[in-house]
UniProtKB/TrEMBL annotation:
Name this protein carries in UniProt: DUF309 domain-containing protein
Family matches, as InterPro entries: DUF309, TTHA0068_sf
Species this protein is from: Candidatus Chlorohelix allophototropha
Protein origin, superkingdom: Bacteria
Gene3D superfamilies: TTHA0068-like
Lineage per the UniProt record: Bacteria, Bacillati, Chloroflexota, Chloroflexia, Candidatus Chloroheliales
Length: 129
């Protein structure tokens, strides 16, 4: 499923995700996702949904929206793991699953207590040797 190069703004969206600029990330990746006819569009949408899920958690304390979007994003990213475009999707998925688990433990009443340090970043695969 590896594609040689993503659209030019893809890494801009990744940088916005990593900076926790989830609204901006949504705007950037949505344009790419909507214009892409191939299967890789599911990866763009998955990353977008994970970002929006954390936005719902942090900004709106919207439990249902956060849980739904995070799970949908994980599910869309999973077929592209362990990596795509040199990015460690396996780590993103695992860390998002941990954050989602914590959100579920907190529940609707305590979502405001979510520890934002659990939000993953989307990093490059480390080069060995």
């Amino acid at each position: 499923m590896e594609r040689e190069l993503p659209p030019p703004d893809f890494f801009k969206g990744v940088a916005e995700f990593n900076a926790r600029e989830f609204f901006e990330c949504h705007e950037t990746l949505e344009k790419i996702w909507l214009e892409e006819p191939g299967e890789i569009r599911k990866l763009y949408q998955g990353i977008l949904q994970i970002g929006v899920g954390f936005y719902h958690c942090l900004t709106r304390q919207n439990y249902r929206g956060a849980v739904t979007l995070l799970q949908n994003g994980i599910d869309k990213c999973r077929p592209f793991a362990p990596q795509q475009f040199g990015l460690n999707l396996e780590a993103l998925i695992k860390e998002t699953e941990l954050a989602l688990s914590r959100i579920k433990e907190l529940g609707t009443e305590h979502i405001a207590n979510f520890d934002s340090s659990l939000i993953p970043t989307l990093n490059e695969i480390s080069q060995i040797g």
